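Let's do one together. I've listed all components of the complex below, 291 residues spread over two lines.
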Amino acid sequence: MKNRSCRQAAALAVAALSLAACGTGPDHARGPNQPAVDAAGAAREFTAEEKNLALAPGHSWPADPTPKSVADDGHGIVYQPGYGTTRADLFWFCTWERRFVDPGTSDADRQATLNTMLTVRSTYFYKNSLEPADKKFFDGILDSAGLGDNSKVQNDIRNCPADSQ
Amino acid sequence: MRKSTRAFGITAMAICAGIMAASPAAADCVSISGTCPNNGGWYTSSNVRYVSGFLNYIGASFNSFPDGMQFYIIDSHGTSHGVINASSSFQYLSWGDVWVGESFQNRYGNAGYDWAGYSFSGQETY
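Okay, and this is what the predicted structure of the assembly comes out as:
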């Protein structure tokens, strides 16, 4: 009985030492890796999404939508699936935003442009890439545009890539 | 270790709650979580976030934060802002140079450590 207790104590000591050794690593749960695509994969998403969207007149899609594949520190960058699709949706939306605020756009064209902008709600970006709070903010841009106030659209254009001009 | 992690988490949530109570419609304080990618690389979220409040900063705090992990944001033009290293307390990612309506995305990684798969969780304020 005493020997058994000793063995149990020894086993516990070994277990404790093992745990201490494991403790040199991060004290956090390890789960499955998140799905990811590389920069080329994100570019393929972008190009695929282009086929679903018509840019505002006078605009064209970027020749190379590939995002950065390597960070400044030399490590690779991967992207959450949907990143490229989201960037394409935003590029498309930017072209229509620019048309909406263009002083040369007629009232009739501006209304038609607004109607196109509102279809953003059927895009991957709107449905999948916005947290509720961010969706609420984005809806505010659309709502103000619907009321004839283009200030929030004008402000949002500051987020647009230069090549959507 | 677990106890202090929990304490950090409670602190982080208190900061979030305080900000929301101060102006519930003027700032977003949202939960964030993720898992470090393989090979010490960087993982870029596809979620697009908008600075919505009167705050002139973007910040984050964490309930759990793997050693060696780094967390920062990239603006819509690809410029990176702020880096949080191995800390659970609230830190600024961008201070004074953000504007209401500015969009950004989160990027994080484990900076060369072979600890892929370790997850984090926390809150982001913007």
